[in-house]
Amino acid sequence: MTFSHEAHTRKFKEGYILVDFDRTLATYKDWPTNGPSLGAPIPAMVERVKRWIRDGREVRIFTARAAENNPRVGEDTVAIQNWCREHVGSILPVTNKKDFKCAAIWDDIAVTVEPNTGWRWAAEVSNDAGDPLTYDEEAHFTGYTLKPDEAEAEIVS
Kindly report the CA angle at 90 between 89 and 95, in degrees rounded to 5? Predict the structure, then answer.
């Protein structure tokens, strides 16, 4: 598991920030067939979102659950908004689309491409020795630890 320390990321342009819901903001195991089932909060990302909101940034939830072809789109959207109210402290807009005002997308499956080149963004997070950060170093930078049993946190309804 790796994640970037804020100091190693590019500065955001003005605009809103899209945050993926499943596996980025909340844990996720599989698609439930009997209604929305939302995962436990992922502390590092929840705190990051809260900080952005405190700093006056607009944050939106970016999820395939908001797609028009999801038969539960309305139910899932309301469930996510309620989840955000409980864990983030406010209801956030839920969408599956971006536009020209999008400043950044935080997502577990996205690959960042260097603008106008087609090359994968190769900013590697490393320690002073130039090696990728260890789990302990990542925990130090974010202030959060993830115990092995929390990695498979139970999905809650």
Answer: 130
* pLDDT of the residue at 145: 58
Q: Splitting the chain (157 residues) into consecutive groups of 10 residues, what average pLDDT does each group show?
A: 43 84 91 76 93 94 94 93 97 96 92 78 52 61 55 44
Beta bridge pairs of residue 38: 156
pLDDT at 115: 79
Domains of the chain: 14-151 (3.40.50.1000)
Distances, alpha carbon 34 to alpha carbons 20, 31, 95, 115, 154, in Å: 22, 9, 22, 41, 17
The 3-class secondary structure across the chain, one letter per residue, is: CCCCCHHHCCCCCCCEEEEECECCCECCCCCCCCCCCECCECHHHHHHHHHHHHCCCCEEEECHHHCCCCCCHHHHHHHHHHHHHHHCCCCCCEECCCCCCEEEEECCCCCCECCCCCCECCCCCECCCCCECCHHHHHHHHCCCCCHHHHCCCCEC
Say what the pLDDT of residue 54 is.
92
